Amino acid sequence: MANLYVLTYSGSATDMPMWCRLQAGPAASYGYTGPADGYPGVNTWKGVQRYLTASNVYSGPIDGIPGTNTYKGIQLIARNGGYEGPIDGAPGYYTWRGFDMAIRVGWFGL
Question: Please, what is the end-to-end C-alpha distance for the chain in angstroms?
């Protein structure tokens, strides 16, 4: 079995280890019951939206469909991981890198 917590810094929305961490940490704590396989689907996104709601950075529907407000919430959490860019709902390299770092520190102490 692959190490699900490999430290990568790709800053990519397709960074599989980042999604594994997200699925095993915040998404699982907020209702995601699927595998930590690195492939975000509707149920992963529902867990993410519940996590963002509990973190008071998202107030939209829990529908599993990421949109501008979901991404704004991700950007706000990413600030905890060093993201300094705009909160515009258009995540890029630094959003994902900051979000991943916030998950690592907040959930896994890495």
Answer: 20
